Amino acid sequence: MTFEIRGPVLLPAERTDVELSTADGLTLVGELSMPSDREPTATLVTLHPLPTAGGCMDTHILRKAAARLPAQAGMAVLRFNTRGTSSPRGRSEGAFDGGEAEQFDVAAAMDFVRERGLPRPWLVGWSFGTELALKYGRDHEVEGAILLSPPLHRATDADLSAWRGDERELVVLVPELDDYLRPDEARARFGLVPHARVIAVDGGRHLWVGESQTRRVLTEIVAAVNPDALPLATVWDA
């Protein structure tokens, strides 16, 4: 049977509930999705949108990355709830700290990746998650960071400037119609990081609603991390 890859479709993968332990003594809940037919080519460590606005590990782009990319692009995808965040997977211990103590959550995820021997980690942050990636990603052994709809509320010019001269990639997807930061302003702000690649997405919105926007985001992620897997399949033979 052949079906179109869209919406909530779940492609084959090995999916395991996991727990992450932070340096300040919290347990965070998450899920690791791995290719079922090969070793992963790379690892996406995902950082979700603002939990006080409903963001969690199941926010749709991150859920769809885990649902599709292990099969489509051979990637491992780690999703988890930052402190105090709930989703159908469960609630992580602790309380939201506005992006400060969440540095321990990022570190716990990277510890997990290292302990499992997962290859070529990349951070994929969305909205609030981009702030965590910008503020704390440089502290860890990642190949780069992909930023979806960065608001640049908590990440300061000093945080951006710290990436200047860093050889790791910084890929920035900015929706044309974003509620917080649009392409022209993004180019100006990220001018502090000359090697940052700002990609304006025509017609895009902060929440990347709709299958066409989902496919664009997932394609740009794969283009940065494993371009040999492109173009992504749009149908699947079950």
Helix/strand layout:
Blueprint: E1 2-4, E2 14-21, E3 27-34, E4 42-47, H1 60-73, E5 75-80, E6 86-87, E7 90-91, H2 102-116, E8 121-126, H3 128-136, E9 144-148, H4 157-161, E10 169-175, H5 183-189, E11 197-201, H6 211-225, E12 235-237
Parallel strand pairs: 4-5, 4-8, 8-9, 9-10, 10-11
Antiparallel strand pairs: 1-12, 2-3, 3-5, 6-7
3D architecture notes:
The chain is an alpha/beta fold and 238 residues long. The chain is built from 6 helices and 12 strands. It has helices spanning 60-73, 102-116, 128-136, 157-161, 183-189, 211-225, and strands at 2-4, 14-21, 27-34, 42-47, 75-80, 86-87, 90-91, 121-126, 144-148, 169-175, 197-201, 235-237. The model has no long low-confidence stretch (mean pLDDT 97).
